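Late entry, evening session. Most of the bench is empty. Finally got around to the prediction I had been postponing all week. Sequence below, unchanged from the version circulated by S.P.
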Amino acid sequence: MKQRITNAFAKAKAEGRGAFVAYLTMGFPSLAASEQAVDDIIAGGADIVEFGVPFSDPFADGGVIRSAAYEALKQGVTLDDIIALAKRLRAKHPETGFVLFSYYNLIFSKGLENFADAVADAGIDAVLSVDLPLEERDELLSVLAPRGVSYVPLIAPNTPIERVKESEAGLENSFLYVITVKGTTGARTELPSDLTSRLDAIRAVAHLPVAAGFGISTKAQADEVSRHADGFIVGSALVKCLAEGKKPCLG
């Protein structure tokens, strides 16, 4: 298994900063624009890119990403298109961490073995499935792990610490995606007051790097989170830039 994600966090730590994990909805505003956006955001300092797969019922996503997903679906963008896009980008960015971010129905519908073969061939490092419970993820892990592909667990605001430890058990070349706020994705002017203590508690028990996401939209927020986590995740703010005809950027 290539250790691109592990290496990305280690590099950021050595440079005294939090790793920048960038989420983009693939196919918005077009597949060609998504490819350029990934190039741009990596040039702008992203250490890891999450390839968001548009889904017809994106219940975890806020308005910005939901609208982007609907637009991509209107254009007929598919999971296969996005895996092919990732493969093209891997050739250009051999060291950047790539995470495929999806809902499980799309993964399951492709057939787990076929899916695992495809993402491994594309050079994707890990998969994140928004709606796959801890108790049911082994069927996916069982096909990903032999192919050198990892999995990124989501940690909710109310996840007990013991379950945090269960969530990362057996994983490598990954990170804990700690959700900062209750509700859907989307930029927020303020993050929860208890977030830093929550991140400290998780980091104290975790062996994987800890990255926080949902609601981070400014460099100041990213810097604050990075004092208590190994990285930060930005999505809606980047997608909003694309919707406004700009390059993806952190405010």
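Two things to note before I forget:
The chain has one domain: 4-243.
The longest strand covers residues 19-25.
Will write this up properly tomorrow.
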